[in-house]
Specification:
15 strands, elongated, alpha+beta, 4 domains, disordered C terminus, disordered N terminus, Metal Transport, Frataxin, Chain A
Length: 476
Amino acid sequence: MTHGPIDDDGSGTRRYDEGPGRRPYDDASARRARGADTSDRRPYAEDGTASRPGGEDGRAPRPDAEGAAVRRPIGEPVRPVRSHPVEPTWTRPPDPDQVDPGVLGALLRRHGWQRRGGATGRYGRWTPPGPAGRGMSLLVPENRAFPDSDDLLGEALTALSRSGSPAARDVLVALTVPSDEIHWWRDVPTGPLGTASWGVEDQLRSAARQMLLAAALATRARAGYYGARHRLPAAACLDGVLVGAAPGGRHLTAFVPVAGGRPLALRLHQALYAAREAIDYQRATGGMEAFDGAVEAGVSHELTEALVALVRGTEGARVAVDWAPAAGVPEGGTAPAEPVEFSPGDLPVLREAGARYLREEPSIPVRITGAVVRMRRSAGRGEGTVRLRVLAGAEVPHVRMTLDEESYRIAGQAHLVGLPVRVRGRLESRGGFRRLTDADGIAPVQVDEAERDRLMKSLQETAEITAFFEEACGGD
């Protein structure tokens, strides 16, 4: 810490003049030497009794008074602390009363379980896939027509919950949260004992997420290239998706809840088939026209990039969508939905289609309302660059634009007083719809006080700027 010189005013008091932002050194003697009033620092009242930090009656301030510290009496027990809210955990199997025997049987078959006998029309005996299931079997009733159906269901669910098999876990997840299942397979070499390298596992997860995000974007709007448009709401669609991975980095399953997530699964299902048909058409005829019509089904630059990421470095890849048995097949879906296969030979076509979507997506005229969040120019005068946080007019979070000197001044004044601005221009597809060109007609937008305070946040308003800007706006 750097201190200024010691000032001796003859009173014996040494005062330190510290740097800006620091509270100067002070005590009672120094204050008396400067002639300051020290009555508020008396430790005792005039009658000699100790003063208290309360009112004139000596009582302590109420705990609920503003600025008062809350103190617990010594003899009072500690009150229980409210626990932090957490997401519910699934530690027990589903309630047998809530499980449809037909749905359980369909899920067992989907996840590779084999039916090996059982009384026809009454129950079936199921064994899990692979060598890990030796010695284990489930008795699953086919319906609830018999008195012991609930007991058999309870025993089967308990056995599934105690099993370490991924096939058992996936069945329980699908029962707990009725979900459409999306499966990805990649034909890649595995490591020792079925392990996978970090990169292989990461490639599978990354490609799967890209594909889900592309499908979520297609549920918002149809476009050959989205860029930054619709990104935030599309990413929010993935929050409820559950993931179950198989060892080896070759297989991944996403459980998309039917409630709220079915449009995503249906759009991906349709887009995959449309992409496969467009690839086959191009490889047969050499034309790319089929990709134009595939946009309506959900194919886009983002989806082709996801498919390239999935197939690259493999001998082939497959994607399948299985509908939740409890909800049935949606309108526009097919059952059974066969896996859609892609091979390394499809990569050149996918890359060409992605570049074509990127190149041909047009810029769009917009009228944006936004809050100025950043300004920059190389000199004290002239044009400058402004960044807006978009409030309305475009499905992107931020845009940048270059303004002339007068428009830059208006944007700066709006920024200082916490008002948004409205501007016209063209949202350029090049760069992901993040830049506004031909910006024109910038003007402040009057908002109510609550919104204005929220936009200002920590900005400090001066009376001179307020008077100037309100006169320019014609407001009161």
